[in-house]
Design goal:
homodimer, about 180 residues, alpha/beta, Dihydrofolate Reductase, subunit A, 8-stranded mixed sheet
Chain lengths: ~180, ~180
């Protein structure tokens, strides 16, 4: 069972363009890659802010065959949204979640953000691979890839450099032991 | 006359590792690249914080044949440090500085930071090329590549991807018209 972090960022590590919500600023090439990264995984992990932003889309596609785990400090607030096996809410740690997904027979969990969740998972050491789309943009201001109050410094190795288009790179990093 | 931005960043766009000063966290491969980028330029542009951090080293090498322009809101505070043609302080805009360097017959100005100065130059449109060293690190916390209160979004094209080592990339972007 592998935990894979998937993100699109600007050159200055922004997830969002200034204070705009979401990643609609990303290129068509990244959107295509993101769809294929979603298809490759059987579990999606995300924070409650990301969930709230994408809630309508997520709830329309609950029967896609994927399990969605939403990480929140207050899972009880989302009791009415819960659909066992499809949409679940938890305050468990990354290790507890990864162990549970492994025990339940899942193969591949995609961590989808936002910044606090990326920070939490990278800091915990459960991330096997990072798939970073690097767009040719610099925003100066916006939500940050691993933006949280926790300073981290995981050990990573570059394993692959792909061109999604002339200007957009897909960089793959693995945790190095 | 070309203005080239030179920087080393983590995957989340940090210039510094957490609250540590400077870029001593960068790889040996980047340090070698940085030395050659410095040798290629005849003018160095930086902000007063970067100058203050590197002051002793800079003042030891004043006769290296390079001109250093330090950007500050209070040039008068640095009157005693000034050595005409080698170390100068100004509150001019990027355009004014670039025009002056062109008029003085210089060929290549390297913008060396920090975040506020990178933001200022990228926002102004005078940057011809960006040379970004991308290290396989994620810090979560630290000074940001273009960290300032000004939201920017310059048009850039990826022109080159070089491997400085197995894990360290040198990415070159040009302003696209």
């Amino acid at each position: 069972m592998r935990v894979v972090l998937v993100a699109v960022i600007s050159l200055d590590g922004c997830l969002t363009r200034h204070h705009d919500e979401g990643a609609s600023w990303a290129s068509a090439a990244d959107k295509q890659h993101f769809a294929s990264a979603l298809a490759d995984a059987d579990v999606y992990l995300m924070g409650s802010t990301t969930y709230t932003e994408a809630r309508d889309n997520i709830r329309k596609r609950l029967d896609s065959g994927h399990r969605r785990i939403i990480i929140t400090r207050t899972p009880e607030k989302y009791e009415h949204d819960t659909v066992r096996g499809q949409l679940e809410f938890t305050s468990d740690t990354p290790h507890q979640i990864a162990d549970r997904m492994r025990a339940d027979g899942h193969r591949r969990c995609a961590v989808l953000g936002g910044g606090e969740i990326y920070n939490l998972f990278l800091g915990s050491g459960v991330v096997y691979e990072m798939q970073l789309t690097l767009e040719p943009r610099v925003f100066g201001d916006g939500k940050r890839l691993a933006g949280a109050s926790t300073a981290i410094d995981p050990k990573l190795s570059l394993t692959k450099v792909d061109h999604l288009s002339d200007d957009t790179l897909l960089l793959t990093y693995r945790r190095s032991e």
